[in-house]
Amino acid sequence: MHNEIEKILISEEEIQSKCKELGAQLTEEYEGRFPLAIGVLKGAMPFMGDLLKRVETHLEMDFMDVSSYDGGMRSTGEVKIVKDLDTSVEGRDLIIVEDIIDSGLTLSYLVDLFKYRKAKSIKIVTLLDKPEGRTSHIKADTVGFEVPDEFVVGYGLDYNEKYRNLPYIGILKPEVYGG
Ligand code: PRP
Ligand code: MN
Ligand code: MG
């Protein structure tokens, strides 16, 4: 699997130390409250685990599965709810956890939905931000790393459902996706 990666953009060590740093920030900000952390499946899964284990105050976890990519490299332009939350967001402080913001479509859809459902506050925490990909007007409150406009995989990010289990973020060799 590793020989299909052209280069490592963000190492395992860099990711883990970022999770520690951001976890400490969240601890300070949400101390004494009981936020609802929402992981956006499936990509946010590794980051959600590593980030939230660094938060030293009570929080609740829930998951939502929305999809706009159908496994490929390009957004279909329309967001579908595959699995909704179990919990009501009304009156809650939300922390949305994402692996990457690219076009911004996924998050602008979710933010609108949670506002409509009367969340008290909404904070967006994303490991990666790809500002050049943006078509929707959305900005994360907290960004781990900015990435260039290249197809990145690993640590939750997939290509045709592969590479999510890499412990780092890398760039795929073009021959793997026929480029
Ligand atoms: C990917 C990624 C983000 C979203 C970002 O998810 O994990 O959730 O796309 O792209 P956007 O800003 O252009 O909306 P995807 O829909 O591929 O589902 P997955 O997490 O299950 O891979
Ligand atoms: Mn996703
Ligand atoms: Mg995907």
Give an overview in words.
Pathway: Purine metabolism; IMP biosynthesis via salvage pathway; IMP from hypoxanthine: step 1/1; Purine metabolism; GMP biosynthesis via salvage pathway; GMP from guanine: step 1/1. Belongs to the purine/pyrimidine phosphoribosyltransferase family. The protein is of the alpha/beta class. The chain has helices at residues 12-30, 45-52, 105-116; strands spanning 5-10, 36-41, 60-67, 80-83, 93-101, 121-129, 142-146, 152-153, 169-172. The chain has a single domain, classed as 3-Layer(aba) Sandwich (Rossmann fold), CATH 3.40.50.2020. It has three helices and nine strands; from the N terminus they run βαβαβββαββββ. The strands form two sheets. A six-stranded mixed sheet has the order 4-3-2-5-6-7, sandwiched between helices. A three-stranded antiparallel sheet has the order 1-9-8, covered by helices on one side. Helix 1 packs across helix 2. The radius of gyration is 16 Å and the shape is globular. The relative contact order is 0.21. The mean pLDDT is 95. The protein binds 1-O-pyrophosphono-5-O-phosphono-alpha-D-ribofuranose, manganese (II) ion and magnesium ion. Magnesium ion (MG) is lined by residues 43, 69, 158. Residues 40, 43, 99 line the site of manganese (II) ion.
How are the elements arranged and paired?
Elements: E1 5-10, H1 12-30, E2 36-41, H2 45-52, E3 60-67, E4 80-83, E5 93-101, H3 105-116, E6 121-129, E7 142-146, E8 152-153, E9 169-172
Parallel strand pairs: 2-3, 2-5, 5-6, 6-7
Antiparallel strand pairs: 1-9, 3-4, 8-9
